[in-house]
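Because discrete structure vocabularies remain unfamiliar, we turn briefly to a single example record, giving the amino acid sequence and backbone structure tokens:
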Amino acid sequence: MGRRGIVIAFLIVVFVTTGGVLALADPVAGDIERNATTTDPPQLGIETCAAEPPADFSDPEEDVLGWYDGYWYNEPLGFDQSDGLTDDELDAVVARTKARVEALRCLPFTKPVDVSVIDRETFLDQRGTPDPARDTRLFENARAQALFLVNDSTDAVQVEADNRGMAVLGYYSLASSEVVLISEADGTLFVNEATLAHELGHALQDQHFGFEVWNRNTTDMRLAELGLIEGDVMFFQRAFEGHCEAGAWEGMCLEPPEREPVELANVGLYLLSFQPYSDGPSFIEHHYERGGWDAIDAMYQRFPDSAKEIIYPERYGTFETQPPSLTDRSDTDWRRISPTRHPPYDQLGEPSLFVSLVYPGLESGDERYVIESDHVFNRGPDGELDPMNPYNYSHPATDGWVGDRFMAYTEPDDPGDSIAFTQQIAFADADHASQYLHAYQRLLEVHNGEHLEGYAVPEQGAIYRIEDGDDFSGVYWVQQAGDTVTVVHAPTVGELTSVHADVEYTDVPDTTLTPTPGEVTPTPSPTPADAQPGFAVLTTVLVILTSLLLLRWYLVRRD
């Protein structure tokens, strides 16, 4: 992907909990060590690289880290923003924030970065209505449907755009090397200094490392890339906020008036988009503790290859994906969908599988679930969400993932844009594959999937049908072969082999196709006494939201 028009977006979240509840994440199978929960801000000492400001904050004789355009990192500004900021005051805030970013990240700005502020109405007008190529839209819809996040009567592209439109508080544009902040106030200039620091952090990354590597073309690789990029910025932003909270800066930290809560268009898509921002900071912390900023800087020469390396940071540089050998086995009744500038397949990755399994519980307040929804929240000893790593993306049903392939299909010249897909997922061994198969069959059942016993399929396979009129309607052929699980989705049983010729089933004579009671039980999240606390194509990336959002939304449904 080229630089033109790419935008990195940022939003802030205030996490509110009911307090007093300690949700311990269940241990991961095998020798995998989950990211640790760290409720304290990172201990980034500004004295390690920033110059010491003089008592009178006079300008240094030469440019030094921690001083920028006339302002030191802890220099009082002499004004607040109770009535908003003037343009000159904004310039002073930007200069001091750049000095603070330099002091924490130990890198200098090498060229100016313009900062502007617009209101949300202007932002929404500029954003416009998403209008990707037809195959790109179809592929996005197929992928969201395959994960049971957006139903087959809703446009996933528009839902993603709606999520971003209401949540974004600012962004850094690679095309113009400019930071744009979005103000909720009409005609009054307010700045959230932490948001500004985050976006200036992206400008700093661009100046030192470049973003020409933004050409990773699968969901899993993009999540991995963002785990480093956003994890880096979120890590030092948390240190920035920690200095504000502790009063370590002599100059106050600016915050805008509290924003009214916003509603997400789709919590499942948000949760998946958020994975790099939740796991990324702990990934950075893990490697920072072992090699400082030099270790982090070196990663820009060797990006993580999979989001699994972000979830389990000790696997960085050693984990290799093992994608299955899924090939196109459709006939002429179906056409494989080829999104623009991307291959005609995707690797969805472990976070995608996890979100698909936990989303029904989040959506229903655990009235129907595969993985209990509380498993997704990482809480500290005080019961509050870990600000460094608020959400968990690991579970025994998915942690054996080593690779996958996803391909989507549509009927040629079909005005209704009917969709089918094949998905093959490889696991570390057959036991992990069985755990996922068990959970996936439950996922079908919570979406009203009926097990069609009238069709006998080899070994652990099965055919499920979701009736027309229900979300995600159609049939699903599911089979485990050793360490691999294959899913084929088509409108009817008879079309399964047209979508994927390797589908096998037997039409058993004189057998009435009636639904059978589901024998698969939900997959609760165990919390043994010795458990350790747990820790697709987007050009605008969601980070954290300005109010309760996911947790608030979840608690309302639980009540």
